[in-house]
């Protein structure tokens, strides 16, 4: 996801792509823009150590 964000895609667009590819959110629902923002924040924090 960080790579897609680095390419300039919005969180809303990334959420749409994840949903279109059939990925489901934590409880089996669709991804929202806010969930993608949270995941990106966690992923960035983890990669920084």
Can you summarize this structure?
The chain is about 65% helix and about 0% strand.
Task: Report what the structure shows.
The protein is built from 3 helices and no strands. The longest helix has 16 residues. It is mainly alpha-helical and 49 residues long. It has one domain. Helix 2 packs across helix 3. The protein starts with a helix and ends with a helix.
Please outline the helices and strands:
Blueprint: H1 2-6, H2 11-20, H3 33-48
Helix pairs in contact: 2-3
Radius of gyration: 11 Å
Distance between the termini: 18 Å
How would you sum up the global shape? globular
Q: Report the order of strands and helices.
A: HHH
Helix share bin:
55-70%
User: How many DSSP-defined strands?
Assistant: 0
Question: Could you name the key traits of this structure?
Answer:
single chain; 49 residues; mainly alpha; 3 helices; 0% strand; globular
């Amino acid at each position: 996801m960080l790579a897609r964000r680095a390419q300039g895609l919005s969180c809303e667009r990334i959420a749409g792509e994840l949903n279109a590819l059939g990925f489901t959110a934590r409880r089996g629902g669709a991804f929202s823009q806010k969930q993608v923002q949270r995941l990106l924040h966690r992923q960035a924090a983890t990669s920084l150590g």
